[in-house]
Design a protein that fits this description.
disordered C terminus; 5-stranded antiparallel sheet; alpha+beta; single chain
Length: about 750
């Protein structure tokens, strides 16, 4: 049994930000930190005070986290980036909004005295003797302190204050994991209301000391406990006044906290088996649970439910059967071919999730080089005459401005080249497409052809495939390459327009160049010859794509299963130190690949992929979760010379100075499947719609009374899947009730702390 927490984060936009550049504007981006650990960096939006990001993330984090903070920064090319302000949401704030926090939040000033982190190890005791009682405070060590100096460390010391007296520890140079083992005593008067304050500081020779955090204790509670020892989280100093709210602008956020208690696998087996049985029966099933789940699922949560179901069946090897069932249900209620798969049904949402889970690597191989070329060229491209700005494209020849006709012709030629390259890459990619994706498209193609036969519907099966492949997968990736991990940053305004026009052209090809698609934007006419040629190429590609037999599908899957798929791959720089001084250090660029089995590297890359540090850390943490040899503590520094650089201990085999804890990880489409978590999420959704499902059961019972009587008369008594489902839900409900209370573990000695 495990307690798991996750955050759904959407950073929407900012407004009324202050100008940080001499141009009267800013170049804002956001950094998201969980308990002072940076986990997310958005794209920079250039030259604006009202940036729009629209970036979404799913973050898994330990249940004991305290707060998530959003920092709005201004990027500077030549100097350190400026901090504009921040929004901080505590765990308690998020827990108080079960449906999530959504709306505008004022940015507040960032005070260095509030930017604290780490814990301090203390032993407190009341010493009784022949004279007055004494309060003894032993300052043992600290860990994960904030680095305040340019060398990436601090020079920490501790100041202990009680009843007007102040005592200080020695200074530990260049360490965020200091050990003091020093003891201080104070006279203690029984009944005194004075609090004990333990503060950590960074010593500076020239400037003022930097505040690292504090812990405040209620001495009255210590009288009853007599002695307490443990690690205490350092708290910020919030006594300073702030700038007026709203003067730094606002940030629009959507943040939702999910706390899940995941039971052992055996508890979910009845639910998984029941759902799998319904999928195997298909549309011939007596209860048809899947259609009822779709009918009772609201539009707002349909995408989440589709993703959870898809991942569950993917883990059971039934993704193709599940999608085939949804295809049949959609076709059964569709009368017009031109409306097929155009709504946000469970079939459409599930297929979107399926392509992202199973086809993201394939998408990168096909689309990546074309996207890179568009970003590198940075050409001005425009086909709409009403939007052409000649001044943006410079001159043609010697000091002669380009005419509008020249701009349109050059733009059309640029788009023809990009569209042709994309269609050629797609045509060559049949064998690179995952077998399960090809088999699923084959089922879709055959089902649609059965439902809409005849020459008048010749293109309908092809359009059904392209409605997912082009309109819901390739085109969105072209318009927002960063969200599909094709680029590290969003495109600027000029490149975004090129990508949008290219995506429109791909959509026209995917619609098989129908008159309706041509009539929408007549100024796309210069691309029509390439679009018509692309339609022929795409139909030929789809014909080959769906031409896969069961034996070939199994062979391809078997060959793929022998290779551990990469979780992350890309370049990293290795820092090597040969001695003291900057000239004795060197960096070597190597290309790493992390799979579920190993971390390997080579001197040259096999494929190009941009990875940020937090993505690498997230991937490594995911692969280490189930490691049985995981250490309880570790040294975050290195053993250099005769001591550890982090805690200055001289014994190389000394226990680590920092604890090994569950860290924050970012959810990616290529994450290993977590069957128990997906089953728990489906269970939670079914609980929310249980009342509607019971109402559906009553309606079905009333409508099928005669049929049920006939079956009973003939001796047949089919089991009611809905009744089975309600029993499974009841069993899971009881299992959760009997499990230990699913609340976040309290901080050590939390009762001793005063609210500051």
């Amino acid at each position: 049994m495990a307690k798991r927490s996750s955050l759904s984060i959407r950073i929407v936009e900012g407004k009324n930000l202050p100008a940080k550049d001499i141009t009267g504007s800013s170049d804002p981006y956001c950094i998201v930190k969980v308990d002072n650990e940076p986990i997310i960096r958005t794209a920079t939006v250039w030259k604006t005070l009202c940036p729009f990001w629209g970036e979404e993330y799913q973050v898994h984090l330990p249940p004991t986290f305290h707060a998530v903070a959003f920092y709005v920064m201004d990027e500077d090319a030549l100097s350190r980036d400026d901090v504009i302000g921040k929004v901080c949401l505590t765990r308690d704030t998020l827990a108080a909004h079960p449906k999530g926090f959504s709306g505008w939040a004022h940015l507040t000033e960032v005070d260095p005295d509030e930017e604290v982190q780490g814990e301090i190890h203390l032993r407190l005791e009341v010493v009784r003797g022949p004279g007055p009682c004494r309060l003894r405070c032993s300052v043992l060590e600290a860990r994960d302190l904030a680095p305040k100096d340019r060398n990436g460390a601090s020079d920490p010391f501790v100041r202990v204050r009680y009843n007007g007296r102040t005592q200080e520890t020695s200074i530990v140079k260049k360490s965020c994991y200091p050990r003091w083992n020093e003891t201080f005593e104070f006279e203690l008067e029984e009944g005194a209301a004075e609090a004990l304050c333990v503060e950590a500081w960074d010593w500076d020779l020239v400037s003022r000391n930097d505040f690292l955090g504090k812990v405040v204790f209620n001495v009255q509670r210590l009288w009853a406990a007599q002695q307490e020892e443990g690690w205490f989280r350092l708290q910020p100093d919030q006594s300073k006044s702030r700038r007026g709210e709203g003067s730094l602008g606002s940030l629009q956020l959507e943040v939702r906290l999910w706390d899940e208690t995941v039971l052992p696998s055996g508890c979910y087996q009845p639910l998984v088996q029941l759902l799998c049985h319904e999928v195997k029966l298909g549309t011939q099933g007596p209860g048809q649970l899947i259609p009822l789940i779709e009918e009772t699922t609201s539009t707002e949560c349909r995408q989440d439910v589709a993703t959870n179901l898809l991942k569950l069946f993917l883990g059971q090897g039934l993704a193709k059967d599940f999608l085939d069932l949804l295809f049949q249900l959609e076709l059964g209620r569709t009368s017009e071919a031109n409306t097929l798969f155009r709504s946000n049904s469970l079939a459409s949402k599930s297929m979107e999730s399926f392509l992202k889970v199973a086809g993201m690597r394939y998408l990168h191989g096909v689309l990546g080089p074309i996207i890179d070329r568009v970003f590198e060229e940075k050409k001005y491209v425009e086909l709409d005459p009403s939007r052409v700005e000649v001044k943006d494209v410079g001159c043609s020849g010697l000091h002669r401005p380009q005419t509008e006709a020249e701009v349109l012709e050059q733009s059309a030629q640029t788009l023809r080249v990009h569209l042709g390259a994309l269609l050629s890459a797609l045509s060559r990619s049949v064998r690179a497409c995952p077998a399960v994706v090809r088999a699923t498209f084959r089922q879709l193609f055959l089902r649609v052809r059965e439902r809409f036969p005849g020459a008048q519907h010749e293109n309908v099966p092809f359009i059904a495939v392209t409605s997912f492949l082009c309109l819901r997968f390739v085109s969105p990736a072209i318009m927002a390459p960063k969200l599909f991990h094709l680029r590290e940053r969003h495109a600027d305004a000029r490149t975004s327009r090129t990508l949008l026009l290219l995506a429109k052209a791909v959509q026209n090809v995917g619609n098989m160049d129908t008159p309706a698609s041509r009539a929408k934007e007549a100024w796309m006419e210069p691309l029509q010859p390439t679009v018509r040629q692309g339609v022929a190429q795409l139909k030929d590609f789809i014909t080959k794509l769906v031409d896969i037999g069961e034996k070939e599908e199994l062979d391809l899957q078997r060959a793929l299963s022998l290779q551990a798929p990469p979780v992350k791959e890309g370049p990293l720089f290795i820092h090597r130190t040969k001695g003291k001084g900057p000239l004795m250090s060197s960096f070597k660029k190597l290309h790493f690949s992390l799979t579920t089995e190993a971390l390997s590297f080579a001197k040259t890359p096999n494929s190009k992929c941009v990875n940020e540090l937090n993505q690498w850390l997230s991937a490594l943490r995911k692969m280490s979760i189930s490691n049985p040899g995981l250490l309880g503590s570790y040294h975050p520094g290195i053993f250099r010379g005769d001591k550890w650089s982090c805690c200055h201990q001289k014994d190389k085999s000394d226990l680590g100075c920092d604890k090994t804890r569950s860290r924050v990880t970012l959810q990616e489409w290529n994450d290993p499947l977590d069957h128990d978590l997906e089953a728990q999420l489906i269970y939670r959704h079914l609980l929310g719609v249980e009342a509607m499902l019971r109402e559906k059961q009553r309606e079905l019972s009333a409508a099928g009374t005669e049929a049920g009587s006939a079956l009973r008369g003939s001796g047949e008594a089919p089991k009611d899947p809905l009744a089975q489902l309600f029993q499974v839900l009841q069993d899971l409900r009881e299992a959760h009730r009997s499990s230990p209370a699913s609340v976040p573990p309290s901080e050590t000695n939390r009762l001793l702390e005063l609210q500051t």
